[in-house]
Amino acid sequence: MGSTDRAKSSRWTSPPSEKDAADAEASGPSSVDRDIKEEISVLIVDDEDTIRESCASVLEQEGFQIKTAHRGEDALQLLERRSFDIVLLDLYMKGVGGMKLLNSCLETSPDTIVIIMTGNPSVESSLAALRAGAWDYLPKPFSSTQLHVLMGRASHAVMVAKESRQRRTSLQMEHGHGKDSEVAFIGEASGFKAALELARKVAQTDASVFLTGESGSGKEMFAQYIHAHSRRKARPMVALNCAALPETLLESEMFGHVKGAFTGAVKDKPGLLEAAHRGTIFLDELGEMSLTIQAKLLRVLQDGVVRRVGSSSTDAVVDVRFIAATNQDPLEAVESGRLRRDLYYRLRVVPIDVPPLRARMSDIPLLANHFFLQYWKRHRDTGEKPPHFSDEAIRELQKRNWPGNVRELQNVMEHLVVLTEEGQEIQPEDLPSTEGGSSGGGGKGIAGLTDSFLDTEYHVARDRLIAEFEQAYLERLVQESGGNMSEAARQAGVDRTTLYRLMQKHDLEKRDLMEGA
């Protein structure tokens, strides 16, 4: 392109037109607080003094941290020394051109937003820049308003990206899902090994996984295993318990919200779906999610589009691998209308059923010793000789029903670590009692429990026995916890929502239980 054409195409135009103002109104989130702009670093690269200096003047007045370069070579040296949040880059320059700078910038700092400025905005050159990783392009000539609108959008994207990275880091630290974390499984039981083999096969794909199994059986451990062995393992696995939050808070946590969406929403906030971008999200207790949120989640599964609470437009497009879990019968939840059929089948590409501990009794010696030594290192002097289990103690552990599954076994092992002496041989009488009791010890036992049901059809007897157990368990649980429902839920290994639902099912009131205690 000739110098005359170039000079004409690169001039700064002002004042803004009415169309500019209308474009600014319709261009989305261009209004970003000054204190946010003051934290955003911008590099402007253009060999035309007018454009470079005009852009720098306007953006400095808005609060941005500005650096400029009038040659591509100078910009390369700057980019080698430090990274920038936003780079405004002329496409056509003598020497080192815009495309080379674009590639170099994104190689050293993939999170940098690069905006191409060009006086020759052909379809071919624009597409080439966007394919190479440019965030957007600004055709010359442009007004201060057009620059303001585009930089507002870019600043918003920078802010969201920074918050998402901070969220990922905190989630990794909180849940131990860093790059080097590895999920180890212990067990030789056939049902457990079959589930693990299925998890191993599906891990290398991006297929959605639906985990079923009782509370405490290890569903989240399976989710961690799948993520740790997937192509996404360098990115975070974000876990969300759908039963632990009320509907409005769950929606905000999952999808994020915009400033002013509700009382207390003082700024835009990305949700966990955005934090899990290019990683995995684990939705535990999916059956507790409201139908309204299920419908919104279905859209993300269909096209990856995220709309935050209070927003009227698309806020992000995410690439997320979904793993869902429930301790309920998902088909029963579908038939009763609590779980959307279309959502269930989108998430249930590969179903994995995690067996309960009572179905893998041969694994109890391995698990008990593993957990005991793990807690011994955590709570006791590592120089002390750890206790060991007698054969009788192991047999007693294998007799128990373990309604709380692996989580309950962990609690028992931690209890033993705290109370046993160095080098002690642990006997059956040293084992703490549990709600599940022993299936072969004193009391009525299985035979005694079934005596009164022998003249009843099997399915009816089973349902009655389960109902009696649930009611007796809940009554004792609430009384033993002194009416503290959070503590009761913790002891039972379930969330409070599940606990309240069970109490409602059996028409139990905390007040009545405490009065009868």
Structural description of this entry:
With 517 residues, the protein is of the alpha/beta class. The protein has four domains: 3-162, Response regulator (Rossmann fold), CATH 3.40.50; 176-355, 3-Layer(aba) Sandwich (Rossmann fold); 358-430, Orthogonal Bundle (Helicase, Ruva Protein, domain 3), CATH 1.10.8.60; 446-515, Arc Repressor Mutant, subunit A (Orthogonal Bundle), CATH 1.10.10. 49% of the residues lie in helices and 12% in strands. The protein has helices at 3-9, 18-26, 34-37, 49-62, 72-81, 98-108, 123-131, 144-175, 190-203, 219-228, 247-255, 272-275, 291-303, 330-335, 341-347, 364-379, 391-399, 405-419, 445-451, 458-480, 485-492, 496-505, 510-515, and strands at residues 41-45, 65-69, 86-90, 113-118, 136-139, 209-212, 237-241, 256-257, 269-270, 280-284, 305-306, 316-317, 321-326, 350-353, 388-389, 425-426. The strands form five sheets. A five-stranded parallel β-sheet has the order 2-1-3-4-5, sandwiched between helices. Strand 3, helix 6 and strand 4 form a beta-alpha-beta unit. Mean pLDDT is 81; it is low at 1-11, 13-30, 173-183 and 436-448.
